[in-house]
Specification:
The protein is of the alpha+beta class. Helix 2 crosses helix 3. The radius of gyration is 24 Å and the shape is rod-shaped.
């Protein structure tokens, strides 16, 4: 006997409702396609600069380096690092996805966590932030390229 016979209207209603709900979920989960936009990055010096301390003869070497811009599914990610005497002292996200409110919400909690992890680990060996997988991957790759460029 056929599953959608007229003597079983409840089954037909359930199947039609399930198909409608499935279709709506799929439609709502799609992100609208936007043309790639070039994010403006503030240029930073990529050479090292030395500053000497007043009392001793030792010089503190501070180096600021930009990592590569990594294209992720939701937009470009780029970080800038500051090394002082070979130690990672600052990591700043220069470029990251900000196209829509959801991107801004995700990055408002992900970027501080990624920065903290990088400063603690003193490397690009950091955990992915849940809910910000693509940003975390791009951040990690850009951080590693900056560390490689700095020789650290």
């Amino acid at each position: 006997m056929h599953a959608l016979k007229k003597n079983r209207p409840l089954r037909r209603i359930v199947l039609a409702s399930a198909a409608t709900v499935s279709g709506m979920v799929l439609l709502l989960s799609l992100k609208p396609h936007t043309a790639p936009q070039v994010a403006l990055a503030v240029p930073a010096p990529s050479s090292s600069s030395s500053s000497s301390s007043g009392s001793g003869g030792s010089a503190a070497v501070t180096k600021t380096v930009n990592g590569e811009t990594v294209q992720t599914r939701w937009g470009p990610v780029q970080v800038r690092i500051t090394l002082k005497n070979g130690r990672l002292t600052d990591v700043t996200a220069v470029t990251y996805p900000t196209d829509n409110p959801r991107d801004q919400e995700i990055n408002s909690y992900a970027l501080p966590r990624l920065r903290s992890e990088a400063l603690t680990a003193q490397s690009a060996d950091i955990d992915t932030v849940s809910g910000a997988t693509y940003t975390s991957d791009g951040y990690r790759q850009s951080l590693q390229s900056a560390l490689d460029s700095a020789g650290g």
